[in-house]
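Submission checklist for the structure archive. All mandatory fields must be present; incomplete records are returned to the submitter.

[x] Identifier: Cell division protein FtsX
[x] Organism: Harryflintia acetispora
[x] Residue count: 298
[x] Sequence attached
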Amino acid sequence: MRGSSFGYLIKVGVRSVFKNRLMSFASIGVLTACMLLIGSAGMLSLNVNSIVGYVEDQNEVVVFADDNLDEDELQNLDLDLHSMDNIRDIQFISREQTLEEFNEKSEEGLGFEEGDNPFPNAFRLSVDDLSRLSETVTKLQGLEGVIEVNAPTDIASTIVSVKQAVYIGGSSIVLILAIVALIIIANTIKITVFNRRKEINIMKFVGATDTFIKLPFFVEGMVLGLLAASLAFFILWGGYEYLVTWMDGNQSALFMMFKDQIIPFESIALMMYGAFAAGGVLIGVGGSMIFVRKYLRV
């Protein structure tokens, strides 16, 4: 195909978007609505995961050491802790430091003297994977010099369950919406192509090749997909920023608690637009090509 013919077919494809305004508007509207639903579900899932991850990071495990351990033995215990997997952010808390903090927070007359220090040396640490907390606690209890391990196992179990539920629920919602979107969009494109079946048949009868006929529809589908993706992207961005601003203005206690964990739209804007654009073009072009092929068989 010559360059002039190729350029002509691209112009025809772009012109067809405006020539068939009613069906183009319907296709863009349906595709935009479906992308908004999928994008909103995705943003909700990302933010819930971010908040759950923050709560997960706040859970600490405290390992209490035997009072009879000397400095070398405490150092060996510290090395054992650093050599274990699923553990990070290890902090040594001396019994003197614990006593000082307790006395500062206690009411006058309720503190302990230096010689009556009842607190043991301890290590405060965080775990990487809360789903393995019970396994990690068992290993910690087996270390030489450890007398007790204080871990929020019940809270960890709840957080892990919530995280799994959010992942499964979010993925299921996005998948269901994507399937519904594909069905609706496929039918919309099918109607669009059906309304132009005579145009396709005439071109076929006068000797036009399949590629010559398909290219304008290919371009048209790509333009419709990109327009819908851009429209959905900016509507989602504006709606998301409005919602965050509204929640911030209401000074909601829950929002203020997790304000720093709310994902800024700018941080995922490029990824979101890329997904919208790829999905829009794939659906627009793919749908057009599938249904145009039916009317090429004359």
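[x] Structure attached
Curator remark: The longest strand covers residues 87-93. The chain is about 70% helix and 10% strand.
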